[in-house]
Structure formats: C-alpha cells, structure tokens
Structures
1.
Amino acid sequence: QVQLVESGGGLVQPGGSLRLSCAASITPDSIKAMAWYRQAPGKQRELVAGFSSYGRTVYAESVKGRFTLSRDNAKSTMFLQMNSLKADDTAVYYCNVDQWGVLETYWGQGTQVTVSS
C-alpha cells in the first residue's frame, strides 16, 4: 500500500501563488507515474500536471505557463508551483501515483485550494 501525504493548500487571492507537495512512501525507482489532479464542486476530476511513465511532463492547457511541476527524486516527492492563480483554479487537489508492476493506482487525501478575494 502506497501512502501519499499532500500539503500546501489554502486560501489565496487572485493572482497569488501556492506550492503543493506530495510525498510518496515508496522508493523513487518504484514510481511509474506521478501526477496532480483536481476536482471542483460539481465537476469531474481532471488532470492538472504530471510526470508520465515515459519521462514526459504534461500540463492541462488551462494551467500552462502558470503552474510548474517538479520532483525531488531522492525523496519521492513532487511539487506543484502554482502562480497567477485564478478563481477557476479553486478545487480539491489530489496527488496520484502509479507503481511499476502494480495495477492499482494510489490517491492522496486531497488538499483544498481556494482562490478568492
């Protein structure tokens, strides 16, 4: 069982910044893919940004140029730097990890991001 610990959410004004962190309880070489998703009230969960199994970094069109994904491989930790936040970015953000050789996908408990004046 993979444990994911998320942190960094909160309330921020439009135009502000937040940095989310996700720490996985498995070794870096066990991680096949790692990503952030978000779910706003009444909407489906959507991919925000992620590292794919073949080494690419992908971003949703709505966050390109504003959000930056990074990773500390030594600590199995992923970061999402969110700048120029908008009200539309308000959602619960979830960390997601896929592990090599395991069919199950793992989710964090979610961290709330609220962008409001």
2.
Amino acid sequence: VQLAESGGGLVQAGGSLRLSCAASGDIYSTLNLGWYRQAPGKQRSLVARITRKGTIEYGDSVKGRFTISRDDSNHTVYLHMDSLKDEDTADYYCNQGILTNSGVFAEYWGLGIQVTVSS
C-alpha cells in the first residue's frame, strides 16, 4: 500500500489550499482517515480525521476553517483549508487505516507535503 499526497505549496495568508491523499495497492477498504501536521521544532499534531461512518474531529486551531472529506471509491481523503494563517505553515501528513484483501489491518502514513503561508 502506498499513499500519494498532493496539493501543498505556498499561499498568502487568507488564501485556500486543498490537499489530497490517495491510497493505492492491496486495499479492501479504508477505515479511519486523517491529516496531521508538524511545524519545525514542534510535535506532530492532529489536524482532522474522519471515520468510515463520517464522524469528524478537528484540531482546535483549525475548527471553522478546514474541512476534511473522503471518497471511498478512490481511497482518497481531502483537506480543504480556508482562511490560512501563518501558523498553519507546516508539513502535513496523511494517515489512512487500511484493511487489505487478505484481512490485514495497518495504518499507513504519507511522506508529508509542505504548506507554507506567507503574510
């Protein structure tokens, strides 16, 4: 199983970006999906996550600005980010809980994608 993240880059404060993370390989179903971020000198923290049933949790600092969604037909999770602030600058990591066709469950991480917000 591999995760491919896309959509990061440089954006001005107040702008928007959409991150995508597509899983490929031996996949029966994707379960809990999430985005985490890590700024220089800080620990990795939750941005948002969504269960297969659609229950969503957001980190306090992004509530009302970011929206997580999923497309199970494409094993993809999205993060739409609005009203971006300087403090949103970080490396963003996708996390997917995946059940393989052979019945093995594991959590997978993307390599990370950089988001830089300039003021």
3.
Amino acid sequence: QVKLVESGGGLVQAGGSLRLSCAASGTIFSIKAMNWYRQAPGKQRELVAAFSSGGSTNYADSVKGRFTISGDNAKNTVYLQMNSLKPEDTAVYYCHVRAGLIRISDYWGQGTQVTVSS
C-alpha cells in the first residue's frame, strides 16, 4: 500500500515563503515522476511543478521563477519551495507520484492547504 504524506502548508502573508514536503511510503517501484498540483476553489486541479526520476523539472508559467521543485530519490521525497507567494497561489496543494514497472499507477496525497493573505 503506497501512501503519500504531505506537510508544510499553512497561512502566510503575500511575499512570504513556504516549503511543502511529500514523502512516499510503502512498496513503490520505478518512480517516473513526482509532481505538485493545486486546486483553488471553483477551479480545476492544475499542475504546478514536475520532477522526473532523471532530475528534470517543469513549471507552470504562473510560478516560474518563484517556486522550486526538488527531490530525494533515495527517500522517495519531493519538495516544493514557494517564494514570493501571491494571494492567487491560495489553493489545496496535492502531491502526485507516477510509478510502475509494467503497469503504471498514479498515487495522490491527501492535500495540504496553502493560504496567502494580501
């Protein structure tokens, strides 16, 4: 049973910083990517940042230059450093892992709330 545990969300003023962490536990083979998504009220879930097993990264245009995704493959952990936060970054942030050898599976965390006040 694979479980993703997120931490680091909270309330911060505009311009502030937060660091999210997501640790994957359980038996998990061949992680392809570890990503962060977010979903604001009334909006669709969107990809914020992606981290591949090879170390490449990709970001949504709205967070480029402000957010940094990094990973520790040995610990099956992914981080999201969020700087210069804006009120529009307010959302529930979800960790996502894609993994598998023959059959690819997607795993999701329970979500962590990030609220940025103006």
4.
Amino acid sequence: QVHLVESGGGLVQPGGSLRLSCAASGSIFRLSTMGWYRQAPGKQRELVARIGSGGTTLYADSVKGRFTISRDNAKNTLYLQMGGLKPEDTAIYYCNLDPPFPSQPDYWGLGTQVTVSS
C-alpha cells in the first residue's frame, strides 16, 4: 500500500514562488513515475509535470520554464518548484504515483491548495 502526502501549498502573490513536496510511503517510489496534477474549480484535473524513474521530465505547456519537478529517491519525496506564479495557477495540486506494474492502480494524495492572488 502506498500513501502520498502533499505539503507546501498556500497563498502567494502573482510572480511569487512556492515549493510543493509529496512524501510517499512504501518501497516502489524509486521505481515509479511520479507526477503533479492540478484541478481548478469547475475544471478537469490536468497534468502539470511528470518525472520518470530515470529522471526524464515532462511539463504542461502552461508551466514550462516556470515550474521544475524533481525527486529524491533516498527520501521517497517528490518536489515541484513553482516560480512566476499566475492567478491561473490557482488550484488544488495532487501528487500521483504510477507504479511500474501494469496490474497496480495509480495512487493519489489528498492534495494541497495553491492560491495566487494579490
């Protein structure tokens, strides 16, 4: 069983920065693709960024150049460094673990709220 716990959200002014963290339990973190997703009110959940077990990254066009995803396998922790924040980045941010085994479902955290407002 895997549990994911996000932290680091909050209220920030436009142009500001935040770093989100996702602590994972279990032993499959280092083997798994990890991702950050977000869901704004009235909108569907969308991919923000993903990082493979080997470190390959993928970003949504809307955050390229502003956000950086990283992972620390020794600490079982995923990060999202967010800069140049815009009001449209306001959403609940969720951590996702995509296991390397086809028979296993994805795991999700409960999310952390990010609000960008002056």
